[in-house]
Write a structure and sequence with these properties.
67 residues, 0% strand, 90% helix
């Protein structure tokens, strides 16, 4: 089950539960924290992918030299 298969009714239920748990005053703080966390995760994932792309040509060059 992926996130895309939740649908609108599922999202509404999740939002209502979050609103009940945290209340309307805490909701902006929770949203900001989630946003910062997602931004940091995306940055870290992008850095890892970039590092792997840089390392991949070096490994290919080593294989060519070894052959």
């Amino acid at each position: 089950m992926s996130l895309a298969s939740i649908g609108v009714p599922g999202l509404i239920i999740i939002l209502v539960i979050v609103l009940i748990l945290f209340g309307p005053r805490k909701l902006p703080e929770v949203g900001a924290a989630v946003g910062k966390t997602l931004a940091e995760f995306k940055k870290s994932a992008r850095d890892i992918i970039d590092d792997e792309e840089v390392a991949a040509p070096k490994e290919t060059e080593k294989k060519r030299i070894d052959l």
